[in-house]
Amino acid sequence: MTRLRDMVLIADSDVERAERLAASCAERGVDVQVATHGARALEIALAELPVALVTQLDLPLIEGARLAEILRANPRTESTGILFIADERTVPPEGDAAGRVLPGHADPETIAHFVQALLLKHRPPREETPEPLGGIEGELAQLPLSELIELFHVNRKTGRILLERGPARRRESGQVALRVGDVVHAAIGRVEGEKALYRLFAWNRGHFQFVPDPSIGEQSIERPTRALLREGRRQAAEWDRLAGEISPAQTRASLVVAREELPSVLHPLTQEVLLALEGTDRVDHLLDRCSFPDFQVLRTLMTLVRRGIVEMRSASHDASSRAAKAAVPPGVAARIRQRMERTRCGGDAKVLVLASGDDAAHALAARIAALPGASDAPASIPANAMAPLGQIDLDEETAVRWVAAPSDGRFRPIWPTGSYGALAVVFAHAGPVEQSVQSLRSAIDAIGSLPRVRMLHALFSEKAGEGAAASLCEALALFDDRRVVEIPLAAGREADESFRELLRRVLA
After folding, report:
1. CA separation for the pair 369, 251 (Å, rounded)
2. Which segments of 265-310 does DSSP mark as H helices, in order?
3. Alpha-carbon separation of residue 77 from 73, 82, 309, 389, 461 (angstroms)
């Protein structure tokens, strides 16, 4: 986040003392924000990046020492100077984490003097750095999802927690939606609701970003948030115990006895697992297809293995993954990685997609999935949320993630967030050109006004070469037709080749 001024955060449940200290700092020309409990202090610190933090050790909700530990572990706040205030019966922390501790009865002028010293020591260079959009972000290793949800539950926030983890070739993403602090929806891949939420609770590594979104409409979760937190922590502990024996993504399972040899009466969970095995041998896909919690499915699968009913084996490398490398010219992946490093985005590359309608979104997802080694096309694409559309692996380390964003004007605030660091923004058109352009006009104008954003257009037509691309260029007042790629709607060699041309222009 760009720092244009020095800011000090005072976290103190003693409101009168905090106000006196804030006044003393203000007299010295220092901007101050005040929080009366640890949850609010953490929210401000992650969003505003204060130069210094003055925190009461006995802080409600999140204690001062724990607050300092979280901030020091986060790369964005690790340089924040920290000053502790210890009340009469508070035991100061020991060791390197202690920092300077002042008594709670100290004169505000004295504390303000130490605050100024912290500012001089920890003030960052005046150069501005790119602002990571989306408000609050960090790593799950420092702030687990359960604590993050508690933070937003206490502060009654409305928005989405976007989550990512894993290397480029196996990147996973999920989201949790909150309405006035209550969890109302969760999704990871094709799994939604409580099952998705409990799976995300088991993530102990990855990146999170909170995006305010006042238009939360999904409602796949009804259970009270406090009950969800208790159950989520229990299931996460069970999953950690079982997953240490099996890696679902790298394991295959198959039935090794005849159907007629199975017991006539089976538990509903066992029946569901055996039925799912008829459609897939991948354990991670099996977890998706079963409605029961992941740890119960895995436990049942291991019981079936011990009884000799199911056999599990390690997965070999899929030949299609190797074939995916030929989808783009050699050296492209290295160039993309260098570009991401220069823009400080890191990780996989991203393409933001805004579609004129469901037909265009599904047509593009189908073309992405048709490439060798690409991820499957999503069964459904939300109309009111950012969602993965597909992924193309460039090599073992780098992938291009295609992310769909709502094109409705109500979602204008999330367009800059989605396009930040993207290789390109692709507008997917289908149907009559005039209607398509009209539905995307506000998004095209808004994103076109952003700096350093490459915009391309994928035009899906019944039959290529009948002037639709020219009509689109005319409707958009485009003088460079290289920004438009016409792709036949019908699957086939011509459609695949046209999409490869779009991919080459995205990666150029």
Report:
1. 22
2. 268-277, 283-289, 294-306
3. 8, 11, 52, 33, 49
* Cβ neighbours, 10 Å, residue 422: 22
Q: What is the enclosing helix (H) or strand (E) of 240? A: helix 225-243
Torsions phi, psi for 53 (to 5 deg): -125, 130
**What would the pLDDT profile of 330-358 be if each residue is shown by its tens digit?**
567 667 766 666 554 556 788 999 999 99
The tokens for 411 are 């979602």
What is the rounded (10 degree) CA torsion for 115, 121, 122, 125?
130
pTM: 0.47
CA dist 482 and 502 (Å) reads 10
The sign one gets for the Cα dihedral 371, 376, 377, 382 is negative
**Exposed e or buried b per residue across 314-331, where buried means at least 16 C-beta atoms within 10 angstroms of its C-beta:** eeeeeeeeeebbebbeee
What is the distance, to the nearest Å, from the Cα of residue 224 to the centroid of all Cα atoms in its chain?
A: 23
Name the H helices within 282-357. Answer: 283-289, 294-306, 319-324, 332-342
**Which residues are CB-neighbours of 39 under 8 A, at least 6 positions away?**
61, 62, 150, 151, 154, 155
Half-sphere exposure of residue 237, counting CA atoms within 13 Å on the CB side?
A: 5
